[in-house]
Design goal:
The structure is a homodimer. The first copy, chain A, is of the alpha+beta class. Chain A is built from seven helices and nine strands; from the N terminus they run ααββαβββαβαβαββα. In chain A, strands 3, 4, 5, 6, 7, 8 and 9 form a seven-stranded antiparallel beta sheet that branches. In chain A, strands 1-2 form a two-stranded antiparallel ribbon. Chains A and B meet through α1, α2, β3, β4 and β6 of A and α1, α2, β3, β4 and β6 of B.
């Protein structure tokens, strides 16, 4: 060892300096590559799956991020409908407009929803509403409404490179009436917990806005899932199913 | 040097092996950290911004991913509305239902849209439709419709941890009539280019479905952007504005 170092350092320097400590250099490079690869993989993993694990669906609603098991098989229509509603932190609500210049027109609007805490799906999409809200103006005149949510809102379609209008990027359409839930009831407490758990900032929204909890009472369900046209799902089957 | 190595290797080994090659070790550790940090930053950058650059908004519609400049200041209402429609690859359309058991109800449904190729916003949300589609059944009876798109569909709200119902996570509601665009016209060609450029799989959709291009003829615009309630935007101002 000693002689070898002396030779390399002073007496018989190789033509290429890269060969100088070739054994040690290779080990260091290998070590660096190993560490870099490992940490890079970890970083990518944590960025892509902040809640851990492959094989599931990742939802980032802005306020919170969640990781869910993969969706049910596409032929389990009721379960797929429940799955999409459960993992969706927001959805679009259609009402009949009462607003100037568009009275009687359909009216699409975005709302944060929750059908339960992430580990408990009820199938009931709950809303946190105020009489000041545009769609609530409509609902006071006509409670009929329709709600749609899509797997395009999660990592599901993105990872599979599915266009949002591709039938394999499933979406569900619930239609019925919006029902205001009476304060002080068990359902109001559970609904508020469901909403606040997935939308923590709701607790800090202006106190003078008169927020209340509401639910879509589901009359009709369409599932756009896979090819062959929309599937109609009986609400009873929907409630009997489990998302996972 | 020689003596030092000999001493360390055999005669006067230090109590901590970490001190053995302290100068060299520190340099290697520093080098590894430098490389690891650099590569990790690059990986995170590429994962978060596949199309490059901070300060903008990233949209991943599943089929394609795009990076856009940041939104206009929130007080430039018309420009913000144009921005949200331009960067949105999909949106939710409300119609008046003609379907069994929910006839006359509002009806919410998801569609892929494009108001132009990514570098050219027209402000006109274009659709690729077929008479087989549920909402098109409705539109044939009543062309009135409303379309909503939200910054919650992009990286904008996610990166700022904004709840989708937070007014700072802006969304726009366009209401009007859906107009079928005649094949062979310049508008049909441009609309098809706008749609296919952002939804390449549309070109491969079943030929026997009778796809056609349609546009929402905008009558009324609400922008939910920042606090203080919805802003009504004159369609003329909307068309005169530029998203960036």
């Amino acid at each position: 060892m000693t002689v070898e170092y002396n030779e390399l350092d002073g007496l018989s320097r190789p033509t290429s300096s890269r060969k100088r400590h070739s054994g040690c250099g290779l080990a260091v490079v290998t070590l660096i590559l190993f560490v870099v690869t490992g940490i890079s993989a970890l970083v990518v993993w944590k960025v892509c799956f902040p809640s851990g694990g492959f094989g599931g669906v990742f939802v980032d609603n802005g306020a919170l991020a969640h990781h869910y098991p993969p969706p049910p098989p596409h032929t389990e229509y009721a379960a797929v409908a429940r799955y999409i509603i459960h993992i969706s932190d927001w959805a679009t609500l259609a009402t009949i407009s009462t607003h100037a210049n568009i009275t009687g027109y359909p009216f699409a609007n975005v709302f944060s929803i929750s059908d339960g805490i992430t580990s408990n799906s009820t199938g009931n999409p709950y809303f946190y509403l105020t009489d000041l809200e545009l769609s609530v103006h409509d609902l006071k005149a006509d409670p009929r409404a329709s709600l749609t949510a899509s797997l395009a809102q999660s990592s599901y379609c993105r990872q599979r490179r599915l266009d949002p209008q591709d039938p394999v990027c499933a979406h569900v359409i619930l239609t019925g009436e919006i029902v205001k839930i009476k304060n002080g009831t068990a359902e109001a407490a559970a609904a508020q917990q469901a909403l606040f758990s997935r939308h923590p900032e709701m607790q800090d929204w202006p106190q003078d806005h008169g927020w209340f909890v509401a639910r879509l009472a589901i009359r009709h369900i369409y599932l756009l899932d896979y090819f062959g046209g929309a599937k109609v799902i009986d609400p009873q089957d929907y409630y009997a199913a489990q998302p996972f």
